[in-house]
Every structure is written in C-alpha cells, then in structure tokens.
C-alpha cells in the first residue's frame, strides 16, 4: 500500500511531453484551420468575387477585395480549428495508448490539459487581434477600393431583387437581365421636403460616368406629398422618366460600416453614445407623458361642464401613444445590434479557450481511430456551437434575450460540459 502511495505522489509534469503534445496539437490545428478556412472562404469570399466578376471588374481588383476580406475568414476559422485540432490530437494519443503509457510512467493528466490550454489561449488572443485590429483595417481598405470601383462602374450597385438605401432614396428592384430591370419602386425625398413614390414596370440601367447612374423608366407613376401635410398629395403618369442617382449617394451608402466591422473600442463608444441618446429621448417622453397626464387629470376634475372635458379622449390617446413609445425606447434595435456584436467580438475568439476543455475530455474517451473520430465529432460540435450562436443572436433581436447571455451561453455550456467530463474521466 505504501508503494502505491509513493507512486501516486510522484506524478509530475514533463517538459518533453509538453513539447511533444504541443507540436502534435499545432500540426492538427493547422490541418483543421485549412479545412475551416476553405469552408468560410468559399461561403463569404468566392460568392462575393463571383458577383463582382459578372460585372467585369478587373481581376487584380477582385484579388485585392479578397485579400482585404481575409481577416473575417481567419477570425471565424481559428476557434473552430482549435476545437477540431485538439480533439484529433488527444483522440489519436488515446487510441494509440500513448496517454495510458504516460499515466503508467507517473505523469498526470496535467501534461495533457496544460498544452491544450496554452494552445487555446494563444489562438484566442490571435483570433481576437485579427477580429479587433486586422478586420477593421481590412474593412477600411476594402471600402476605399470598392469606392474607386463604384466611381468607375456605378452599375455594380444594382442587383436583382434587392433593396438599396442611399442618402434620401430607397430603390427596390425586381429581376435584372443585363441592364434591364423589372418592377422598379423608388421612395425618395426632394430638397424642398417633398416625398415621392415612383413606380415603373421596367427600367433600363445606364452608367452616367462621373454623374452616377440613371434609370430610364417607361410609363412611370409618381405620387408626391408634402412632408408637413401628408393628406395633400399629387400623382401623375409619365411616358418616360429618367431618374438619377449620384456617385456621392452611392459611395455614402457603401462606406457605412456595421458594428461587426468595427473594433471593440469603437463599438463600445457607439453603445455609450446610443445609450445617452436613448436616455435623452426617454426623458423627453416622460415629460410629455407627465403633461398629458396632468391635462387629463385637470379635465376629469373639471367635469363635463368644462371645455377640456371634450378633449379628455384625445389627451388619453396621446398619453397612451407616448407610453407605448417610451416602452419601446429601451428595446432600440440598433442598440441591441451593437450590444450583440460587442459581446460576440469576445465570445467567438475566446471560444477557442473554452473548446479545449471539451475537446480534451472527449478525446480521452476515444477507443480506436481517435483522429478520425475526433475530426468528425469536432465538426459536429462546431456546427452545434455556430447554431447556438445564430439562435442566440436571433433571440436577442426578436425576443429581447439579454445580449450577453445570447453570445456567451454557448461558451458557458461548452466549458461546463468539458469540466464535467474531465472530472468524471480523471476520477476513474
């Protein structure tokens, strides 16, 4: 009994084993990274390139657009590659009985977990750097190049069955064949505050060079109304109408950057500004609600004989509208989008750190063909994780689930499952 106790007490960490397992994990990570890189590359880059190539954009510019989009692909591929790579490595070591030999030689499970944790931390930091620094820089260069392309070829901006928003114009297009567009709908606002609705069954798209692009519409229908008096409107039918969209409006629409393409610091600053604006609007709404409530109370106290009695229903309806608007302020969609993207910028890159606990625990349970089984299970877990992120994002936008839990719950579940499985395996 005493010899057994001595043997158990001599379990130690080996630098040689650490370097060996670290090398195996890095190699498996590289193979897995190529796999996921190819998937995301095809999904996000080649589809975009194909769309651009159909518009006859020069090949060298297409290559630059792909290059500036690579940080997005790398940031998404790295965490999942750490999961699959760790599963493949530990699965192979277990199925080849190398883990059993290590434990029999007096080594502890720390020799397996420690290299995996180091790899997870390094990959998480590199992924976060790519997502938070390289991605915004690539977006800036992408927009600059796309701006030059649009100035030379404005017709690129028009796509089939799409909704395009410019500065004061929204254009809805149907099917596009060459330069011909079916079922065009334009909603715009003129400089003197007039709102217009323009419809045509077909239109021809023409490149106006430095002036922008034009839509030549036949048998167009126009309805216009003043912004102040909505009930007063005019309408007319025109045999031919040429509608222009300037290059400045096109470029302004393209250069708008979404929260996903910002750095975490920029997104945080935008969240602070939006929160301040929402608080200001909420205070204004509360003031109007108080005024309406006071007017309604005065009318009710004065009774039917007063002049304000007849306005009590209007005061009540106005107060109800203000209260409804006030309840919707805290659920501002743009603020929710920014919050979700802010938490996502941390949850996805650092998902690599949480993945290694689950990957090592599952890899230790492999019986045979551990590398192949690890790859298959890794892909399945990656798909489930991505699905949970998508569901969480949808719930956050539509149901109002707190953005933090929407983005971090998959990581918390992954870590919990990994720790539980590790505790069960180590106790055996």
Summarize this structure briefly.
With 428 residues, the protein is an alpha+beta fold. The protein has twelve helices and seven strands. Helix content is 66%, strand content 14%.
Low-confidence stretches: 1-10
Write down the overall mean pLDDT. 78
SSE arrangement, N to C: HHHHHEEEEEEEHHHHHHH
Gross morphology: elongated
Return the structural class. Answer: alpha+beta
Beta-strand percentage? 5-15%
Estimated radius of gyration: 30 Å
**Sheet with the most strands?**
7 strands, antiparallel
Helical residues, percent: 55-70%
How far is the first residue's CA from the last residue's CA? 19 Å
Question: What is the quaternary state of this protein?
Answer: single chain
Number of helices: 12
Total beta-strand segments = 7
Report on this structure.
The protein contains twelve helices and seven strands. The radius of gyration is 30 Å and the shape is elongated. The protein has helices spanning 2-9, 15-53, 59-95, 98-104, 110-152, 247-254, 264-302, 312-329, 333-347, 351-363, 370-398, 403-427, and strands at 163-165, 169-172, 176-177, 180-189, 194-207, 213-226, 233-245. The model is unreliable at 1-10 (pLDDT under 50).
């Amino acid at each position: 009994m005493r010899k057994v106790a001595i043997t158990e007490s001599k379990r130690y960490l080996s630098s040689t084993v650490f370097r060996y397992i670290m090398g195996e994990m890095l190699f498996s990570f590289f193979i897995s990274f190529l796999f996921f890189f190819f998937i995301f590359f095809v999904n996000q880059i080649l589809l975009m390139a194909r769309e651009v190539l159909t518009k006859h954009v020069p090949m060298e510019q297409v290559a630059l657009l792909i290059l500036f989009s690579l940080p997005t692909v790398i940031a998404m591929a790295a965490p999942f590659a750490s999961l699959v790579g760790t599963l493949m490595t530990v699965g192979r070591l277990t199925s080849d009985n190398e883990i059993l030999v290590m434990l029999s030689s007096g080594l502890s499970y720390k020799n397996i977990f420690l290299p995996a944790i180091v790899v997870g931390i390094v990959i998480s930091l590199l992924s976060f750097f790519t997502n938070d620094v390289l991605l915004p820089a690539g977006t800036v260069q992408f927009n600059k190049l796309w701006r030059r392309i649009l100035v030379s070829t404005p017709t690129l901006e028009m796509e089939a069955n799409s909704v395009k928003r410019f500065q004061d114009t929204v254009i809805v297009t149907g099917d596009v064949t060459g330069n011909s567009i079916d079922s065009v709908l334009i909603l715009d606002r003129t400089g003197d505050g007039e709102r217009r609705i323009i419809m045509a069954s077909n239109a021809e798209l023409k490149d106006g060079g430095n002036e922008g692009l034009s839509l030549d519409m036949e048998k167009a229908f126009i309805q216009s109304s003043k912004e102040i008096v909505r009930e007063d409107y005019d309408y007319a039918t025109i045999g031919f109408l040429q509608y222009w969209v300037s290059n400045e409006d096109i470029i302004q629409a393209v250069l708008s950057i979404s929260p996903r393409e910002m750095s975490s610091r920029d997104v945080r600053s935008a969240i602070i500004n939006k929160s301040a604006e929402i608080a200001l609007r909420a205070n204004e709404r509360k003031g109007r609600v108080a005024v309406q409530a006071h007017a309604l109370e005065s009318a009710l106290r004065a009774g039917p004989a007063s002049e304000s009695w007849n306005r009590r229903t209007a005061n009540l309806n106005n107060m109800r509208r203000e209260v409804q608007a006030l309840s919707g302020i805290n659920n501002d969609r743009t603020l929710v989008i920014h919050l979700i993207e802010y938490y996502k910028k941390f949850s996805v890159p650092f998902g690599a750190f949480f993945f290694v606990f689950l990957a090592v625990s599952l890899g230790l349970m492999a019986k045979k063909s551990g590398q192949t089984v690890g790859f298959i299970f890794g892909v399945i877990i990656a798909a489930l994780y991505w699905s949970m992120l998508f569901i969480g994002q949808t719930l956050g936008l539509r149901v109002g689930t707190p953005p933090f839990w929407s983005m971090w719950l998959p990581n918390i579940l992954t870590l919990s499952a990994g720790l539980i499985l590790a505790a069960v395996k180590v106790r055996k």
